Amino acid sequence: MTVGSDPLLQVRDLDVEYGSGRGILAPSRRAVRVLSGFNLTVGRGETLGIVGESGCGKSTLAHAIARFVPACGGEILFEGRDVLGFDKSAMRAYREAMQLVFQNPMSSLNPHMKVRSIVAEPLSTHTGLDRASRMARVRTLLQETGLPETFMDRHPHELSGGQAQRVVLARALALNPKLLLLDEPTSALDVSVQAQILNLLMRLQADHALTYVVISHSLAVVEHISDRIAVLYLGEVVEEGTRASVFREPRHPYTQALFAATPVPDPSRRKKRASLSGTVPSPADPPPGCRFHTRCPHAMARCRREKPAPHQVAEGHWAACHLLDDDQQTGRTAP
User: pTM for this structure?
Assistant: First the structure.
């Protein structure tokens, strides 16, 4: 569960909740705890892929790290300093070092601004560069992201989805950040463009020594770009490991079900789908014990009572499941 000797980002016992307060139709509405006691470590220069179903807390995690939503407990350490305790000056420096790339590139671009102004905006806010220097920097950033200088005078409505994503990436790189939080970076793009953007991200990472946290519901995306993978279910990491280890032998029943549900283009390689019964529980009232036990085909009485501890199943690979506890004692392989 550790990541090398040089972690850039550490999330410790993080709690995030929504919905507290009163409303006309729900006068006693209670808070929904989306993340509870959440822990994660990201090593400097690596790409961590976070995957899970919609509503599992992936985007909430990114927004909490960026401090766009408040945390109600825990720590978010960036280079060893707790982001949650930053004052205005420290937050300004943190905004330069960390950038969040949103899911829909078009929605994050001001439709009234030209590309030159969109990309130059962080430079105007955070640096003392004169206009000529800012425009020279904009040209360099567009070139690095695969757009010619002529795009400087375009408005967002004149861009395709892939071009808009390149503009968003150019803006995110303007201040030479260390960490990029990429929330579904390809989900709004055509399939033909997705691979281009993923390959661009990998090249930019190598050129700028960037660290990535890539949030996606697509296993194909995280397999293509990630060094390590964390699987989320109802606000908790249920399995984490290197890309090769997790894809070669997923050990948590939820991870196995996600993999089995992934379409395979070759009919001769059709996989038997893992059985998932029931519906996803509400985050407002999560099940006791293992949160996955209401849908798990292997659930035991113990799963309904006790929260499973993480078990190391390979070098750098762990999963939280009571089946693994039994397997370690008997030498069996989990289903």
Answer: 0.89
